[in-house]
């Protein structure tokens, strides 16, 4: 299987993180051989640069450049200007960006300001957005509404049907990862039975959030197959069909044609 006919698309990976320092190239080769594409997602300027470097070297890897709400406190005007240049240098998406009032690692007004700035960059450059939201839903929705329609994916979605419907009404895709396999997430699985498959993207958030058989271990893009398996069970469809469908969703969302 070549990168020209990907069987699976992990729309949220952090392959530049130090957890992959020892075997990054092996993993990238295995992904290529198994037809697994990935969007590598930046969380700050250095990781956004690293994402672009990975994408330049590997045809089955694409880059998103952005500033995570945890890092919003570091994002001054110069940082946002550099982000804009990085985005123009080959990125296919903005992100990850959004609001995280759970860990509150940046002041909330600063998170909102940096989130707005990135939504504006996405609109200016006509790029989709990888969205992070935790414990900030009302404010998150308000910012999205005020900044206007956005082609976005709600990364690491783990909500119930009501939340899924709100996200779909905002025009967002749902990014589904390892948590769909966790025993406690029955409400998420119930929601996913009822959402349009055309609005679902697969992801790993590796090195984090491994699927159930790998809890406590490092996650990686090859394990996105377990997410596809879980959805295949929920939707009563063959695994290959779910893989192809969600990979096509990812290519459409990102505007890429590998
Ligand atoms: Zn992430």
Q: Could you please describe the fold and organization of this structure?
A:
With 258 residues, the protein is of the alpha/beta class. The chain has a single domain (8-254), classed as Metal-dependent hydrolases (TIM Barrel, Alpha-Beta Barrel). The protein contains nine helices and eight strands. The protein has an eight-stranded parallel beta sheet with strand order 1-2-3-4-5-6-7-8, with helices on both faces. Helix 3 (77-88) packs parallel to helix 4 and helix 8 (224-235) crosses helix 9. The longest helix is centred in the middle third of the chain and has 18 residues, at 108-125. The radius of gyration is 17 Å and the shape is globular. The model is unreliable at 1-6 (pLDDT under 50). Bound molecules: zinc ion.
Mean pLDDT: 96
Overall form: globular
The H/E string reads EHEHEHEHEHEHEHEHH
Helix content: 40-55%
Number of strands: 8
CATH architecture grouping: Alpha-Beta Barrel
Strand portion? 15-25%
Structural class: alpha/beta
Uncertain ranges = 1-6
Which superfamily, in CATH terms, is the homologous superfamily?
Metal-dependent hydrolases
How many distinct folded domains? 1
Tell me the strand order in the biggest sheet. 1-2-3-4-5-6-7-8
Instruction: Give a quick account of the main beta sheet: strands, pairing sense, barrel closure.
Output: 8 strands, parallel
* CATH class annotation: Alpha Beta
């Amino acid at each position: 299987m070549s990168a020209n006919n990907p069987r699976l698309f992990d729309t949220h990976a952090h392959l530049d993180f130090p957890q992959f320092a020892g075997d990054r190239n092996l993993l990238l080769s295995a992904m290529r051989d198994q037809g697994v594409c990935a969007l590598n997602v930046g969380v700050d300027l250095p990781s956004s640069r690293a994402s672009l470097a990975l994408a330049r070297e590997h045809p089955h890897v694409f880059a998103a450049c952005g500033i995570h709400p945890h890092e919003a406190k570091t994002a001054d005007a110069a940082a946002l200007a550099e982000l804009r240049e990085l985005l123009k240098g080959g990125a296919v998406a903005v992100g990850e960006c959004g609001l995280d009032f759970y860990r509150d690692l940046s002041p909330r007004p600063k998170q909102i300001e940096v989130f707005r700035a990135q939504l504006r960059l996405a609109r200016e450059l006509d790029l989709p957005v990888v969205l992070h939201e935790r414990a900030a839903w009302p404010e998150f929705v308000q910012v999205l509404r005020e900044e206007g329609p956005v082609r976005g994916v709600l990364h690491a979605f783990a909500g119930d049907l009501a939340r899924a419907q709100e996200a779909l009404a905002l025009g967002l895709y749902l990014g589904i990862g390892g948590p769909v396999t966790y025993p406690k997430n029955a409400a998420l699985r119930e929601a996913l039975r009822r959402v349009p498959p055309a609005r679902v993207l697969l992801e790993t958030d590796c090195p984090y959030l491994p699927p159930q058989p790998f809890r406590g271990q490092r996650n990686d893009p090859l394990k996105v197959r377990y997410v596809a398996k879980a959805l295949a069970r929920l939707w009563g469809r063959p695994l290959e069909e779910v893989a192809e469908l969600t990979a096509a969703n990812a290519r459409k969302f990102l505007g890429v044609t590998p």
